[in-house]
Amino acid sequence: MTADHLILVGVFDGFSWTRCEGKGSFVNSTSVKAFCDERIADGETLVVVDLGGCTGMDSTFMGTLAGIAARLSAKDGGVLQIAEPGDRNRRSLEDLGLDFLMEIDPATAPWRGKLGAIRSHLKPPQAPGSIDRIERVRHVLEAHQTLSEVSDKNAREFGQVVTFLENELAEKEPPAGEADRK
């Protein structure tokens, strides 16, 4: 991961933290997903994504956040919070209706007043290993399917992307059962 796509993470008492420095994109969203999914599997119910150093987000990154928020909300009391999104990132999340899935810069968050201390303890996540092209296409497809499920507007906006990615996967993956016969 390059310096313009840096992800940092930390586990604290009562919440897990992910910070995006630079652009939030399909390049680094797999690291965010892997860390957050691991924390959710370990029982975490509060995940914070810090966008204080984020210069912008692509749709894959936002779809990844929406998926994390959905998985957290399926847990009793689980929530995804966004810290310091800035005006541009806040608008991007709100334009896609994602502010209904997550808490954006909540005033009563348990991490309020502790940003400096939290950020000083963040480290790069364990490298999940490189993912191949098919895994990346699956990830991008899942992110856009999640965005499409949020609203009819998103379904119209991302419908062609979803169809394109589904077709790309169909061309690259062997039909069900064919891989077992080899």
Descriptive notes:
With 182 residues, the protein is an alpha/beta fold. It has a domain of 124 residues: Transcription Regulator spoIIAA. 48% of the residues lie in helices and 20% in strands. It has a five-stranded mixed sheet with strand order 1-2-3-4-5. The longest helix is centred in the C-terminal third of the chain and has 21 residues.
Keywords:
7 helices, five-stranded mixed β-sheet, Transcription Regulator spoIIAA, 48% helix, 182 residues, alpha/beta
Mean pLDDT: 91
Distance between the termini: 35 Å
Main sheet record: 5 strands, mixed
Number of helices: 7
Q: Rough shape?
A: globular
- The CATH topology assignment of the domain at 5-128 is Transcription Regulator spoIIAA
Rg over CA atoms: 17 Å
How many β-strand runs? 5
Using the 3D structure, state the CATH architecture of the domain at 5-128: 2-Layer Sandwich
Query: What is the CATH C level class of the domain at 5-128, in words?
Result: Alpha Beta
Uncertain regions: pLDDT < 50 for 5+ in a row? none
Helicity, as a percent range: 40-55%
What is the fourth-level CATH superfamily of the domain at 5-128?
A: STAS domain
What pattern of helices and strands is seen along the backbone?
EEHEHEHEHHHH
Beta-strand percent range: 15-25%
Spatial strand order of the main sheet: 1-2-3-4-5
Structural class, by secondary structure, is alpha/beta
What is the topological layout?
Layout: E1 5-12, E2 15-24, H1 29-41, E3 46-57, H2 59-73, E4 79-83, H3 86-95, E5 103-104, H4 115-120, H5 133-150, H6 152-172, H7 178-181
Parallel strand pairs: 2-3, 3-4, 4-5
Antiparallel strand pairs: 1-2
Helix pairs in contact: 1-2, 2-5, 5-6
